[in-house]
Predict the 3D structure of the following.
Amino acid sequence: MPANRESCTTRSYVTSPSLPHQPLRVGTARDMSQIDRLQQLLNQCAQGDDDAFAELYRLMAPKLFPLSIRMLKRRDWAEEALQESFVKIWQGAGRYDPGRGSVMTWMTSIVRYRCLDMLRHERLQPALEDTQDYESDTNPGSEPMQATLLSSETQALLRCMDKLDVRQRRSILLAYYGGYTHREIAHRMGAPVGTVKSWIRRSLERIKECLGI
Amino acid sequence: MRYNDDKLRERLAGEYVLGTLQGGARRRFERLLKEDAALRAVVDNWQERLNPLAEALPPEEPPARVWREIARRTAPPSKERSGLWYSIRFWRSLGTAASAMAVMLALYIGLLPTPTPAPTYIVVLVNEQAQAAWVLSADLGSKRVTVQTLRPQAVPIDKAFELWLLPGVGHKPRSLGLIPVTGNVTLPLPEQAASELSKGRGFAVSQEPAGGSPTGLPTGPVLFQGQALSL
């Protein structure tokens, strides 16, 4: 099943040819009140408020679960990673420093690093089973997601991604969503490892430059 | 690797966040992060740049069991299970108490009236401070358990002490009846209880309503415990 929701989401944003010319509205999904709310909940968690923790889970788990599914490719592992991550979030709530980034970013990092650990250290081999298409470059006409559902940060990033060369963009998406190594990406894209390394290096430089942060 | 090169630090941080920094290089980088606040800031910035990608995925509710397990693992211990029944310290103290009791038992057995046939099992019931309150002697031949008070116990007027046989993990405690706060009593030992006792299981005393537990299972706090010792 090569065409799935995921390729649809990423594709519609990163490859839609008209996107860069569309005026992007300021995001609504992660507006100020949402940011404040997450931070408030996390502060309450740090004080042992389990109702706040339940609310934080309710708001964030549906956003983080798809990420762990993409990375681990197996729902049982994805559930385990989410579980471990939220236990860690509860335990580490007091150490969250707003000066170092948003709650959303902090929580996403915890989930991603947990998934990467599971992929690398625990020698899981999901790559072999993965038939997902991370970005279909041949289907630019697919229905784009509603821009206003995405936060301004996500919109800005996707707009920058759109400026990348197709293969560079694909290598970043494979690494980010698939959790693949240089070697695995090279294998999937039929390119030499050295080339993939330079695609990724170049992409990161350009993303930084483009975002201006 | 030259970690003092700014451009290199920038690149490694980006690849660390992306996940393509792997193996030994990743572990070295993680060690370095612990002591290098400036490098942590570089990583923070990369997380801020790249993690919005996660939000581009369509949301999906995890199954309810995920939250149930998280809630279980993050619940404070007292909230989940409370009381002496679940106190590890209490169960651990039983071991110590048992050794102390062995000495006392030897003394007690020595004082038993000689014409009485020796009871098959002896149980000393102790509280959390390892103070003995009763001694039980269970005779499998006559299927009776004799309860003797070693130290009179105080109990609220509307409460009573109930004696339980603990058949082990996965089995419900079995009531052997109410026991006095002072003096002696002899209780019948049910047929199955006798066979359970021969497996060397424990005993407990809980505080219950005056007429005994209304449910057939301990409802009040478990205040005394003891292990059956074969003689």
